[in-house]
Automatic annotation (TrEMBL), chain A:
Residues 11-240 form the ABC transporter domain. It comes from the Bacteria. This is ABC-2 type transport system ATP-binding protein. It comes from Dokdonella fugitiva. InterPro entries: AAA+_ATPase, ABC_transporter-like_ATP-bd, ABC_transporter-like_CS, P-loop_NTPase. Signal peptide: none annotated. PROSITE patterns: ABC_TRANSPORTER_1, ABC_TRANSPORTER_2. SUPFAM superfamilies: P-loop containing nucleoside triphosphate hydrolases (SSF52540). CDD domains: ABC_DR_subfamily_A.
Automatic annotation (TrEMBL), chain B:
The keyword Transcription regulation does not apply. GO terms for molecular function: ABC-type transporter activity. Keywords: Cell membrane, Membrane, Transmembrane, Transmembrane helix, Transport. This is ABC-2 type transport system permease protein. It comes from Dokdonella fugitiva. The keyword Cell division does not apply.
């Protein structure tokens, strides 16, 4: 795994920890986010993604650890950072009783976009984010996808160097999600660094690099290609006449981490320290009287995720 | 403080307010409703009080004296008894509010210039007592005088000075309207700002705001400024209605009235902000507002005379902005005093504002933890 050079980093965190009473929401996480990248934060709900993002932009004080964002020590220099970042919250946080344009105007003023430029910039964003006919519509009356677009437009009004997006597409239909990601890549091409949290695998696969969080612990990070390459030879595709029966036969077999049904076949993820996993799978299927074909298949991010979180569980058990 | 960011907050608040029909209705509705309600309902020109009459003299003169009293319309006869003792019993049971006793030696007393008629009053009801006081001032064909003996509920035979000590002073619309400016401003101003920051926290706006370069002071001051204008509009509404409906005098300068109102508005807005930083929900903010509002009404001197309160309560009342405002506004509107003459209360309001604003800014953190 190649680690990017220090100077090229937008975010550097070491031993980042956040405790809420007895709960450890984020547990000694190390992060390195290269500039001009779309960096994905992958993890289930409650895995510490939002808490980490809030610490990185200075909204929460870490219990432990060091953070360096755009060369600033956080949280000490959080105020200086706020002029240089955009932050899109998980919950829609614009003013629902203001119109699209009023929201943009408010953020332009607050972010200190020079007055002469502000109007031009707002017109530009209205055009770019397809609000030309909705400028006077109240934000609260917009659809989920429109709200997300407006929130993004507001977050980038001052052309921030770094953009934090906390599950930006969780309440959006697939088509809007695709449009939204187009916009994110346009921003990255223009030189912005983006940190996006998500629980969608397809979104994670589009990121330049991803970090997988599980119950506050960083369980994997790297480019999607690196992460999936690490699982080479561990994913099997089982085709059986009765996939549900076959699935029951495979659950609990030593060395099998997960069995997921995909149409008429089963996707089986095996543990790395059992080289004969494929044999065991064959044996288990045979002993349950199933005729099945077993083929190796290319690992995907979901496999990476399952494997990584499984490893985490085992460590905790130990 | 960056003026552009400050203006952005003010503009945002104004735009949001314009779309908030309930708040808009409250701005004008509350003053009008309360003024009409209090102005007319808290009326000391009581009429038709249930009265018992014990005319033991039963002479032409005594009957004429009783008829004179009844002719005022303040009392309406419901029962006639033979002895004053029966009147006392009826009073105690609450069947009558006023007892009129004429002793057997009415003519003789009248001739000697002694008290000729006794009016017994249910002192447990302050407005009744006030009405009876008016009765007592009525001349009884020249030499006859009435003696007023308020009968307090507890203890029944309390001397007159004690009763007066715990009974509120007489009030009228003229006295109430200036006070109402203060009461209405206290209620609406604290409430408006009290919920304003909590509302943004509840709606999720706060996380966006604190992630921007907006400073704490800009946010706080920006939230207060639009409401100063609203408060002055309310003051105008109350003054205009007070003038029109109750012909309340403004003996001092109108500018002083607005300056005093402005001071109270500031004090209340900053108090509201302070509440807003403490409350977790809009409901809690509402509760805290009423926690301040009730003592304000009861202890400030609006309802009960300040002079009658125990020393400890007076100290407490001195902390309430409404107390100082009442002294200012009554002084300006009724006694024609100038603000400069009452500089102590002006200073108290300014100090309250400074402390609350400072505390609110210090308490508000641009952090989620």
């Amino acid at each position: 795994m190649n680690t990017p050079a220090e100077g090229e980093l937008a975010i550097r965190a070491r031993g980042l920890t956040k405790r809420f009473g007895a709960l450890v929401a984020v547990d000694h996480v190390d992060l390195a986010v290269p500039r001009r990248n779309v960096y994905g934060f992958l993890g289930p709900n409650g895995s510490g993604k939002s808490t980490t993002i809030r610490m990185l932009c200075g909204l929460l004080t870490p219990s432990e650890g060091e953070i360096d964002v755009l060369g600033l020590a956080i949280p000490a220099q959080a105020e200086a950072l706020r002029k240089r970042i955009g932050y899109m919250t998980q919950k829609f946080s614009l003013f629902e009783d203001l119109t699209a344009r009023e929201n943009l105007e408010f953020l332009a003023d607050v972010q200190g976009v020079p007055r002469a430029r502000a109007k031009r910039r707002i017109d530009e964003l209205v055009e770019q984010y397809h609000f030309a006919d909705r400028q006077k519509q109240l934000a609260g009356t917009m659809s989920g996808g429109q709200k997300q677009r407006l929130a993004l437009a507001c977050a980038v009004i001052d052309e921030p160097e770094l953009l934090f997006l906390d599950e930006p597409t969780s309440a959006v239909d697939p088509e809007s999600r695709r449009d939204f990601w187009e916009k994110l890549f346009e921003l990255a091409d223009a030189g912005t660094t983006l940190l996006v949290s998500t629980h969608y695998m397809d979104e994670a696969e589009r990121c330049h690099r991803i970090a997988i969080l599980d119950r506050g612990v960083l369980v994997a990070d790297g480019t999607p290609a690196e992460l999936t390459a690490g699982l080479a030879g561990r994913t099997l595709l089982v085709t059986a006449e009765d996939p549900r029966h076959a699935q029951r036969a495979l659950v609990g077999v030593e060395g099998v981490l997960s069995v997921a049904q995909i149409g008429n076949s089963l996707r089986v993820l095996t543990a790395d320290d059992l080289g004969d996993a494929r044999e065991r799978v064959g044996d288990a299927l045979a002993s349950s009287g199933q005729k099945a074909g077993i083929d190796e298949t290319t690992p995907n991010l979901e496999d990476v995720f399952v494997s990584a979180t499984h490893d985490g569980e085992r460590e905790r058990a130990a | 403080m960056n003026l552009r960011r400050l203006w952005a907050v003010v503009l945002k608040e104004l735009r949001q307010m314009r779309r908030d029909r309930i708040t808009l209705a409250m701005i004008v509705g509350i003053p009008v409703m309360q003024l009409v309600l209090f102005g007319y309902a808290i009326n000391l020109n009581v009429r038709g009080l249930a009265a018992g009459i014990a005319d033991q003299a039963n002479t032409a003169g005594s009957r004429a004296a009783v008829m004179d009293l009844l002719a005022t319309g303040v009392v309406a006869p419901v029962v006639e008894t033979r002895t004053p003792d029966e009147l006392v019993a009826l009073l105690r049971r609450g069947e009558i509010s006023v007892g009129i006793a004429v002793p057997p030696d009415f003519e003789q007393r009248k001739a000697q210039g002694r008290e000729a008629v006794q009016v017994m009053v249910d002192g447990s009801d302050t407005s009744v007592q006030g009405a009876a006081a008016q009765l007592a001032q009525m001349p009884l064909d020249g030499s006859a005088r009435l003696r007023e003996a308020p009968l307090a509920s507890t203890p029944p035979a309390a001397p007159i000075d004690v009763v007066a000590f715990y009974n509120p002073e007489r009030r009228s619309a003229v006295n109430i309207v200036p006070g109402l400016i203060g009461v209405i401003l206290t209620m609406t101003m604290v409430l408006f700002t009290g919920v304003s920051i909590v509302r943004e926290r509840e709606r999720g706006n706060m996380e966006l705001l604190i992630a921007t370069p907006l400073s704490r002071t800009e946010l706080m001051v920006g939230k207060v400024l639009p409401f100063i204008a609203i408060g002055l509009v309310q003051t105008t509404v109350i003054l205009a209605l007070g003038l029109w409906l109750f012909t309340v005098p403004v003996r001092g300068s109108v500018l002083d009235v607005y300056l005093a109102a402005g001071l109270l508005i500031l004090a209340n807005l900053t108090l509201g902000l302070m509440i807003s930083t403490k409350a977790q929900s809009q409901f809690q903010a509402m509760q805290m507002t009423f926690f301040v509002f009730l003592p304000s009404i009861l202890l400030s001197g609006f309802m009960f005379p300040f002079a009658g309160m125990p020393q400890v309560v007076r100290w407490l009342a001195e902390v309430l902005p409404l107390t100082h405002f009442l002294r200012l506004i009554r002084g300006i509107m009724l006694r024609g005093a100038g603000l400069a003459e009452m500089w102590i209360d002006v200073a108290a309001l300014l100090a309250f504002t400074a402390v609350m604003m400072g505390a609110a800014i210090l308490r508000f953190h641009k952090r989620l933890d």
